[in-house]
C-alpha cells in the first residue's frame, strides 16, 4: 500500500465532472477519482478547514465516531472494478477493529475530517494512476536500464571470491 494525500479537486475538461486527485508522497504519481458534486464540496470544505454552522453528513459521521470513542485509523482504496473504485474505513474502538465498506469519495471526506491517512493498494495505483513528473520517470527508467546493462553474474553471488571466512553479515 502507498499513502496518498489529497492534492485537491479538479474538473474534467469535457464533462465538467469533479475529480478528487490523490498524490503519492513523492508527487510522482496521481490517482484521479471521479466523484459527485456533493462529495467534491465536502472534500473542498474539509481541505479549506471550513466549519459549517450545523454538521453536514461527513461531520455527523465524525461526531458519531467521536461520541462512541471510535477512531478512523486509516482509509484504504483497495480495488478498481469496472471503472469503480472501492474503499474501506478502518475503525477502531478500544482493541476492536472494523472495516466498513464505503465509497472512496466519502472515505476521503471522512479521512480529512478525522486526520486519518489515506492508503491505496499498489495494484490500484498501477492500474489507474497517471504520471505527474514524466521527466523524472524517464530518468529513473534510464538509470535502471543502465544499471541492469552493467550487471555481471558475479554481482549476484554472496560472499567473497577470496575464500576468506570472516565475511560480514548482511542485515
From TrEMBL:
Pfam family, one: BFN_dom
Molecular function via GO: nuclease activity
InterPro entries tied to this protein: BFN_sf, Bi_nuclease_dom
Residue ranges constituting the BFN domain according to the UniProt record: 1-132
Highest taxon of the lineage: Bacteria
Protein name (database record): BFN domain-containing protein
Source organism of the structure: Rubidibacter lacunae KORDI 51-2
Amino acid at each position: 500500500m502507498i499513502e496518498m494525500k489529497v492534492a485537491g479537486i479538479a474538473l474534467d475538461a469535457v464533462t465538467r465532472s469533479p475529480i478528487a486527485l490523490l498524490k503519492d508522497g513523492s508527487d510522482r504519481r496521481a490517482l484521479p477519482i471521479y466523484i459527485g458534486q456533493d462529495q467534491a464540496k465536502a472534500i473542498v470544505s474539509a481541505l479549506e478547514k471550513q466549519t459549517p454552522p450545523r454538521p453536514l453528513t461527513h461531520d455527523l459521521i465524525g461526531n458519531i465516531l467521536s461520541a462512541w470513542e471510535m477512531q478512523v485509523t486509516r482509509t484504504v482504496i483497495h480495488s478498481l472494478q469496472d471503472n469503480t473504485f472501492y474503499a474501506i474505513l478502518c475503525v477502531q474502538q478500544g482493541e476492536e477493529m472494523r472495516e466498513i465498506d464505503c465509497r472512496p469519495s466519502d472515505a476521503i471526506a471522512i479521512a480529512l475530517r478525522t486526520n486519518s491517512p489515506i492508503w491505496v493498494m499498489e495494484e490500484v495505483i498501477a492500474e489507474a494512476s497517471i504520471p505527474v513528473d514524466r521527466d523524472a520517470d524517464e530518468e529513473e527508467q534510464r538509470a535502471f536500464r543502465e544499471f541492469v546493462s552493467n550487471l555481471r553474474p558475479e554481482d549476484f553471488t554472496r560472499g567473497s571470491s577470496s575464500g576468506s571466512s570472516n565475511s560480514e553479515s548482511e542485515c
